[in-house]
Amino acid sequence: MVGLLPVEVAPEVLAVNSDFDEGRIDPATGYAIPDCDDVPNVDRKTGAGNGELLISADRDHLDGNYSDGDRITEDLHKGWFGVNPTQLGDDFWDGATVTIRKLDKVDEDTGQKESGQVRFYAKWGDTYYGINAYDFNTLAPNNLVTSGVNARPGEGVYGSTSTIPDNAEFWMEGVRPGKITLEWRLQKGSIDVKHEQTFFVATQKSVADWKEEVRYQIRLQTKVASGGEVDIAAYNPANGFRNLSSADPPEDDNRRRVQEIYYYYRQLYLQYDEPLEEMMWAGMAKTAAAPIYGAMSDLSTYNQLQQAAALANIDIGGPGTNAVIKGLLCNGQLQIFGDKGWPHRAFVASGIWALNHVAENAEDALDIRIWRNLAQGIFDEDPFQIEFASRDLLLREQRDIIQESYTVFASNQIIYQPKTGMPWIDNATNWLFGFETVDEVVPGFANVGEWLSANSKKNPMPGGKSFRDVVPGGRIDHFQDRWAWSGDVNDGMFLIWAGSNPAIPNFDRARRQLEAGKSMYDAAFQYAFDGGGLPLE
Questions:
Q1: Quick one: pLDDT at residue 424?
Q2: Strand, helix or coil for residue 191
């Protein structure tokens, strides 16, 4: 009789419910909690440790999609696995053993253990139960006739112990990515029947969708933290770093958008640093941002002083400074974030399977080889492979992403050089004597590439060599010279960050966490000429 009943199957690909529609925030860190985790400190690998099993919104959605308390099933699959509990009567199920378990199998395609995880919900009206079909650590199944309903001991999903009504909807949730093989099994007397299916748990979204998820994550975290959300989509490099004029619209000030991009990198590094430092590139990106952020602030102050001097009929030069702020520094930050922000989110949310999907449909969007190497290093728990993959991410950033901005602004723009008699407001000594003077191309102006090369005196990795100590006479707008400073095997800042070369300053894990964890104000203070002009946080 059971063999004639309809058996419900899982979809071939079940999405990981890892976005932030429910709006939960870890109060200790301020980080948004993925919808599949519900509570802080859930095991990142297995998904174990979630004792709540929630599908209710914790706050109003920022775009009005849901209200606080709404039951959200948008990213779940409507359906059960195996024979639906509403089939047959309680008498049939009573006394039986019914299980849904994950089989401990090796993925033949990868040679790795299947890593996907799923759970279930029953929902009717505004009421819902979370259902623990099996233990995420041991894979031991629960007998769903006598147990399985979360936080309701002794209550099952099948038979007379169940209080789930016949009109309830069942939903399946993807919790961790990867291939999974589920087995539904009924044992009662002489009956022993099974249904088995292998499928993928993976979120298959476009680049645009992943970018939108990162955008919403930052909006949510900043809204909860400060009451005012920061929207990266509103970041227009043409508005520069700061608008200090009262005539400029407040929304044109990019200061917090700049900060939150760097804090997103910090979050990636610190959130995924146990047991391995998986997001090494992100940690270095946050740390190396300190002199860039300081330069944004200094040059914004400088530009404002230029404008003030011009209003006072003091001839101090043209718009070169502002062009560098907008075109190289701000635009360059957005270019890197556009290349690195979304794949990091996709990777931590849904593993290499999410990026494989993107690569199959938009192969130029990323270098999938690097991400596969990173995934293999994490699986093998090999810090050296993680390091090599992270260095390759840095190579792509410097060679393929940011070089165009350097080329355009180094060759076509000029920047004013400070001189005595200028109307500086603060830290005159730094402004007048801290800069390295280079040859002028016209009176009062210098070539941007030459000026930046001469004035890259402080290594973004504290203690490292200046640019021209590493590359005498080099040009920072030339990739090979810049790579020697950032990624070279002898003096490159990545080796300092990774602690790979004992002959140069060597960061250990504690130092990396310290540097990456600093506020932008604290990190940039040692680099800025006008530290007092840095935006307060």
A1: 43
A2: strand
